[in-house]
Structures are given as C-alpha cells and as structure tokens.
Amino acid sequence: MKRLRRAKVVGVSAAYHAMSRTVGGAFLFEDREKEMLRKMIWQVADFCGVEVLTYCIMSNHFHVLIQVPCVDSVSDVELLRRFKVLYPKPTKYQVASFAEIERLLRAGGDEASEVRQKLLARMGDLSEFMKTVKQRFSVWYNRSHHRYGTLWADRFKSVLVEGLGNPLQTMAAYIDLNSVRAGIVNDPKDYRFCGYAEAVAGVKEAKSGLIHIWSDHGVTRIDSAMRAHRTLIFGKHASEPSLSEMTRKRALKVLDQEDGQLPKSVMLRCRVRYFTDGAILGSTEFVRGFTGAWQMERGRKHPPKVNAIKGTDWGDLAVIHGLRRRVFG
C-alpha cells in the first residue's frame, strides 16, 4: 500500500490511522515507556513534517492519526532545523554530521542535491514516520531494559481516512476512546497518553490537531472543537460510563446475532474492526476513488466492493474491506 500510504493525491484531503503492537501482544509499557513514546511521536512528526491529529498509547500497542501534507520542497533552513529536532542532544558524530550537511547545502551543486534528496526521502511519508518512531523507541527500550531483539510484532497496519468531516472525526473519537474501551478511565480526558487529553491540558500541538479535525465545521477555536468532540464521544449526555461486561455482551448480541443497531456513542466504546482493518475509510465516493489503486497494488483481477459499515447510523461511512470475520468485539 505504498502509494496509498503516501496519500499525495491532488485535490483529495486524506489522513492515516496507523497502529502497531508489541511482540505477542505483551504488556510492556508502563507510564515511563508511554511518556517516552509520546515524546518520540511528536518529535518524529516534527522532523517528518507530518501533523499528528490525535494518538493513543496503550500498554502493548499505539495508534496515531496523522495528516501527510502535499509538500514538494523544503528550504535548506528548514531541513537543518528538522535535523536538530531529531537530534536535540547530539553525539560527537551527529554534531559532525550536522556541520557537514550544513557545509554541503551552503556549497550547492550535486552533493547538496544528494543531501536534500536523502533528507527529504525521510519526510512527508507515513512509512518513514512509523519506521523512525518504532526504531528509535526500540533502541531506547532495549537499552533501558537491558534487552535485545524485536520489540514490535510486525511492520504496522494502516487505514487511509478521508481527511475531512465525519470520517476523520469518527476515527479520531475511536482512537481517543481506546482507554475507555480498556476500562482504564470513563473519560478520555483523564488518560494522559492520548491526543484529546493533551488538548484538554493545553498542549499547543494537540489543540491544533483537534481544531484541524473539526475545521470543516468552521471551527477555529479550541473550546468549540472540544464541545464538538465531546458531543461525538458522549452523544447527548455530558458523560457516559464505559460499557460494563454485561452491557457489552448485550450490545454484541444486538450487533452479531440480531443484526441491529446501537447509538454511535455506544458503538465507539466497542471494538470495531472497520477502523483498524477496513483499509480505506470515508464516504462512498472517497473510497470508490481509491479502488483502482488498491486493486492494482494487490494484483487483483476485479476491483473491490465498497461496503457501507454497520452497527449504527455512521452517516455515509464506507470501507473497502467487507470483513467477513467478526467485526465487533
């Protein structure tokens, strides 16, 4: 899905929901590890020139919703700034590398062009963002825990998300509610390792991400974005507790056995595989626009079907994977 992961499609606003899990799903991350991973996500996003809209870090996996801008060039001054962002406390080798990069860029010519290409190849791309985050965190984790070997179970999974309106807002709410689904908190604002909680705490970058998510509603202020987000998360109520196990079983029975529907705020508290395994999430028109690329990348003889997602009134939300196995959990 390299082409889909780059999302540089003229006239189309798109984002990505990317996620990765530890080997064997082991619960390896306590607060210290989550805090380090949180810092690295923001740091690498700055280096790569992508915008983190929201994220959530759990004990054995993390989710991030990012916007990849369509930028074809970056100034030399900005390239050097980003290099320093990635290495705020450089080793002697990295100091020397920075000095050499700066010298070559100032000199111009073929060598400068080669340096630019190498740096730019690591920017504006989902795969490079995730690769850098995971590699840097793995090195830190293994050193801190006197450990060696693979930390992550696989490369990563991703879903291409329509970058405006209901698809983006629903995906963001689903990611922010991870800690609620896990029964850790009743309100995502109380879970410090997610974008929504950081926005509530006043972190500039997190507030910017939340405003971006709700920008199609004409939202330009964080208080308006928060009201809209909480309405989506909690429905008509000011607060709503996480589903008890009995309520969850009842909800799943309605969905799986009775093919029924639940309120959206309840559905968002269930595990919905459309949001992690649907490949492409958006309006029917948006998803249909990517079926050709998806078919070509997989060498399929026939184009995939566009499937409306079930379980509640999601609006015009569709995915490219019908998910024959169990959808809700």
Structure overview:
The protein is 49% helix and 11% strand. It has 329 residues and is of the alpha+beta class. It folds into 2 domains: 240 residues, 2-Layer Sandwich (Alpha-Beta Plaits); 45 residues, no CATH class. The chain has a 7-stranded mixed β-sheet with strand order 2-3-1-4-5-7-6, with helices on both faces. The longest helix has 19 residues. The radius of gyration is 21 Å and the shape is globular.
CATH class of the largest domain: Alpha Beta
Helix count, per DSSP? 16
Classification by helices and strands:
alpha+beta
Strand order of the largest sheet: 2-3-1-4-5-7-6
Q: Residue ranges: pLDDT <50 for 5 or more in a row?
A: none
Radius of gyration from the CA trace? 21 Å
Main beta sheet strand tally, sense and closure:
7 strands, mixed
Described by the principal axes of the CA atoms, the overall outline is globular
Q: Give the helix proportion (percent range).
A: 40-55%
Q: Give the CATH superfamily of the largest domain.
A: Transposase IS200-like
Tell me what the CATH architecture of the largest domain is.
2-Layer Sandwich
Strand count: 7
Helix and strand sequence: HEHEEHHHHEHHHHHHHHEHHEE
